[in-house]
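Posting for a labmate who doesn't have an account.
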Amino acid sequence: MYSEKVMDHFSNPRNVGEIEDANAVGQVGNAKCGDIMKIYMKIEDNVIVDCKFKTFGCGAAIATSSMATEMVKGKTVEEALTLTNKAVMEALDGLPPAKVHCSVLAEEAITAAINDYLKRLGKEPLQKKSCDGCCGSCSAHHE
């Protein structure tokens, strides 16, 4: 059912915890399944130097949070904003169809943290919609 990479990131999640002096924090949740993801970032000179997460949810939610934080660490803010749920799923060698929404949450949490950072700088938050309707559970479907 789950790939070895999903099981590895669930059993040995990377970047778990909080960043006390984070200058970017984003939290998203899915009312359908109860998953909640909170992403903390430390951004210096437009580069994400540290990224941690706290997730309440299933194994796929934990695995996608872990992978997403790994994928954006060391990237610029602009590079991190290009992260898609599909890229997270590919990096994990796929997810069952019923768990695709977890990768959408991971993408949304990264975007929410970056938007928090932009707000703190007095800049406009970005409206990012990359959803293709794959699962029907992300915020793009609740307008």
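Reply:
Got it, the structure tokens are right above this. The CA atoms of residues 15 and 117 lie 19 Å apart.
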